[in-house]
Amino acid sequence: MTRRNMVTQTSDGHVLLVKKLGGLFAIIIGCLLTAVGVTFESSGTTFVGVLFLVLGAGLLVLKIVRRNEGSSLP
Question: Where are the transmembrane segments (predicted)?
C-alpha cells in the first residue's frame, strides 16, 4: 500500500511540475506578446498576449489549489 501511495504522489508531482513550468512559460510569453502588441499598436498581438497571461495564471492557480487540497486550513 505504501508503494502505491508513493507512485500516486510521484505522478501528481510530475503533473504539478508541468503545470508550474507551463504556467510560468505562458506568463513570460504573454508578457512579451503584450509588450510587442502595445508597442506596435497591434490589437491582435496584444489580445493573444493577454490570453497567454490568463492561461499562465490559471495553470498556476490550478497547481496551487491542487497542492493545497489536503490542507487542514479553514
Answer: 21-40, 46-65
pTM, two decimal places: 0.74
Tens digit of each residue's pLDDT (9 = 90 or more) over 20-48: 899 999 999 999 999 999 999 999 999 99
On whether residue 61 sits in a domain, the answer given is yes
Distance between CA 19 and CA 12 in Å, rounded?
Answer: 11
Three cell numbers, residue 13: 508531482
Considering the domain boundaries, does residue 5 fall inside one? no
Cα–Cα distance, 33 to 6 (Å, whole number): 40
Where in the sequence is the domain holding 19, given as residue range(s)?
Answer: 11-67
Domain annotation covers residue 72? no
Distance (Å, whole) CA 56 – CA 44: 18
